[in-house]
């Protein structure tokens, strides 16, 4: 077992039972305070722990890591050190923060701990390339029913290929960044020529993304058995979608401007290591997949997911409760497929799951499905209706794992929609 994962550990810092960040989590992020450059950090309860400060206090004395890895606006250099070093740092953080620590970190906490509410959490990863998959069978089936034929909801390739497309990395933003309603071309249902204007059908997509921590060479393919060596950790991911722009543009080459205006991620990258305890079997795949896509062992992860719409006045409504474990195609299969043609991965690449829908109406991961193309609006606490997202609304996504009294959370992705400019 990974030492930092020991469920019996407690910290000398009091951590609330419902915190996303117990001592067994220790995710990685980047923070900024006034007058200081961004630096790498972890989270514990409602505090952040400054890893550059820990380095300066020589708590990493034996790990042979340059200070520049933590004196850094992104965690990419840290991820590039490799799993063994990443794990050594996470274990050391655990050793420093545990109640029965042999180090004197508790006495020096003032030098490296800050209230999370007093710092600005930054985009943690410099995202090189971003790929979005389409790996939830429930979501793909719902969309097939809505837009094509309920009898043949899944296209012929769907059960054979983890379908995906290359998205836009430049517009991936961290939680809290407001989003302007995008403008673009749309073809209204009753029109004969397209119109230009603000998107009317603004939607979210509930997704989880993995972050690539180890690069591959051009021409190299990664097997499903080795895929997780290249996955550093996971973030929550809101793949904002302009449905009217998407509908008009997506044939024949797939999503473009209907997706590329923004995606929001959570500020903490939860390591694959920290999620070890929450692995579950993947759903059975029928028909059998090609040999290069066969994956062994527990490759899905039981992550409870929630989507909340918050009005400008702060009234909130949960519109979806889903779970990452529903994914038909797991991350190892996605990564093996991504590299099977020799396409190389870079540190910081991000691969999102695709909208995560469950079987029940309450577990659908987009407004398109929740309101069934706007035919079944959601009623908000103030009595107003939502078919899609209105200006002034915030979309909040949360995620956590829970098992045997251990709770590992992701924090949240929050994005407020501002009017088109
Ligand atoms: Mn998507």
Question: Explain this structure to me?
Answer:
This protein is of the alpha+beta class and 421 residues long. It is 14% helix and 27% strand. β20 and β21 form a beta hairpin. The radius of gyration is 22 Å and the shape is globular. The site of manganese (II) ion has 6 residues, from loops.
| Number of E-state strands | 26
Give the DSSP E fraction (strand runs of 2 or more residues): 25-35%
CATH architecture of the largest domain: Alpha-Beta Complex
- The count of helical stretches stands at 8
The top-level CATH class of the largest domain is Alpha Beta
For the residues shown, what is the average pLDDT?
97
Q: Tell me about the biggest sheet?
A: 8 strands, mixed
Instruction: Give the full name of the CATH homologous superfamily of the largest domain.
Output: Fumarylacetoacetase-like, C-terminal domain
**Structural domain tally:** 2
Rg to the nearest angstrom? 22 Å
Question: Can you list the ligands bound to this structure?
Answer: manganese (II) ion
In the predicted model, the low-confidence regions spanning at least 5 consecutive residues are none
Distance from N terminus to C terminus (CA atoms, Å) equals 52 Å
| Morphology | globular
Assign the structural class, choosing from mainly alpha, mainly beta, alpha/beta, alpha+beta, or little secondary structure: alpha+beta
Helix-residue proportion: 10-25%
| CATH topology descriptor of the largest domain | Fumarylacetoacetate hydrolase, domain 2
């Amino acid at each position: 077992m990974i030492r930092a994962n020991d469920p019996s550990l407690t910290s000398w810092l009091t951590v609330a039972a419902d915190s996303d960040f117990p001592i067994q989590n220790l995710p990685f992020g980047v923070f900024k305070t006034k007058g200081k450059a961004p630096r790498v950090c972890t989270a514990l309860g409602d505090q952040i722990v400054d890893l550059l400060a820990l380095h300066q206090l020589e708590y990493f004395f034996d790990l042979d890591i340059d200070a520049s890895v933590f004196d850094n606006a992104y965690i990419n250099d840290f991820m590039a050190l490799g799993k063994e070093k990443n794990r050594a740092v996470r274990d050391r953080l655990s050793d420093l923060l545990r109640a029965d620590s042999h180090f004197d970190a508790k006495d020096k906490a003032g030098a490296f701990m800050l209230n999370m509410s007093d710092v600005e959490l930054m985009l943690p990863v410099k995202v090189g390339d971003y790929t979005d998959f389409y790996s939830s069978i429930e979501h793909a089936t719902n969309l097939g029913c809505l837009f094509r034929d309920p009898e043949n909801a899944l296209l012929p390739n769907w059960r054979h290929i983890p379908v995906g497309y290359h998205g836009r990395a430049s517009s991936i933003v961290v939680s809290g960044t407001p989003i302007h309603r995008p403008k673009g071309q749309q073809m209204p249902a009753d029109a004969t020529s397209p119109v230009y204007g603000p998107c009317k059908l603004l939607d979210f997509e509930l997704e989880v993304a993995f972050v690539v921590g180890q690069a591959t060479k051009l021409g190299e393919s990664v097997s499903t058995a080795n895929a997780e060596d290249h996955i550093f950790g996971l973030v929550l991911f809101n793949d904002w979608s302009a449905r009217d722009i998407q509908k008009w543009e997506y044939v024949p080459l797939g999503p473009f401007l209907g997706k590329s205006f923004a995606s929001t991620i959570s500020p903490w990258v939860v390591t694959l290591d920290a999620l070890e305890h929450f692995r579950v079997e993947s759903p059975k795949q029928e028909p059998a997949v090609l040999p290069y896509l066969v994956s062994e062992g527990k490759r899905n992860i039981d992550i409870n997911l929630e989507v909340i719409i918050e009005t400008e006045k702060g009234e909130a409504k949960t519109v979806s409760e889903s779970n990452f474990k529903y994914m038909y195609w797991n991350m190892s299969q996605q990564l093996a497929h991504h590299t099977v043609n020799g396409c190389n991965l870079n540190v910081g690449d991000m691969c999102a799951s695709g909208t995560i829908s469950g079987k029940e109406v309450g577990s659908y991961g987009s407004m398109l499905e929740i309101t069934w193309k706007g035919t079944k609006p959601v009623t908000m606490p103030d009595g107003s209706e939502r078919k899609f997202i209105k200006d002034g609304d915030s979309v909040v996504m949360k995620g956590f794992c829970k098992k045997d009294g251990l709770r590992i959370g992701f924090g949240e992705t929050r994005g407020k929609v501002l009017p088109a400019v």
